[in-house]
């Protein structure tokens, strides 16, 4: 109990829920920062060499199935025209 208000202390779950809600709020500062990041091209891409191949095709740009993280990254970049 909180001696000042005679209310029970919040549980960790309640605290997490409130802080999560506050973190999702859209503030003018967050909007400005997001816009500035977008003007700079957004989040930098990982180099393909840093993306692990799980199918065994290795460093090749072809032959990866859609279940391979490296294959998905290659297809996404080809579609966007950045590869």
Helix content: 40-55%
Total helical segments? 3
What string gives the helices and strands in order? HHH
Mean pLDDT: 89
From the N-terminal CA to the C-terminal CA, the straight-line distance is 60 Å
Write up what this structure looks like.
- This protein has helices at 12-24, 28-39, 69-80.
- With 83 residues, it is mainly α.
- It has one domain (12-80).
- The N and C termini lie far apart (60 Å).
- The model has no long low-confidence stretch (mean pLDDT 89).
Detail the topology: elements first, then pairings.
Blueprint (H helix, E strand, L loop, with lengths): L11 H13 L3 H12 L29 H12 L3
Compact description:
This protein is an all-alpha fold and 83 residues long.
Keywords:
83 residues; mainly alpha; 3 helices; 45% helix; 0% strand; elongated
């Amino acid at each position: 109990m909180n001696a000042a208000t005679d209310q029970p202390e919040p549980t960790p779950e309640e605290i997490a829920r409130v802080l999560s809600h506050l973190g999702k709020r859209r503030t003018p500062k967050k909007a400005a920062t997001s816009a500035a990041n977008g003007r700079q091209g957004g989040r930098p891409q990982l180099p393909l060499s840093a993306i692990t191949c799980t199918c065994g095709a290795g460093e090749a740009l072809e032959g990866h199935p859609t279940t391979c993280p490296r294959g998905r990254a290659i297809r996404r970049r080809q579609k966007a025209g950045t590869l």
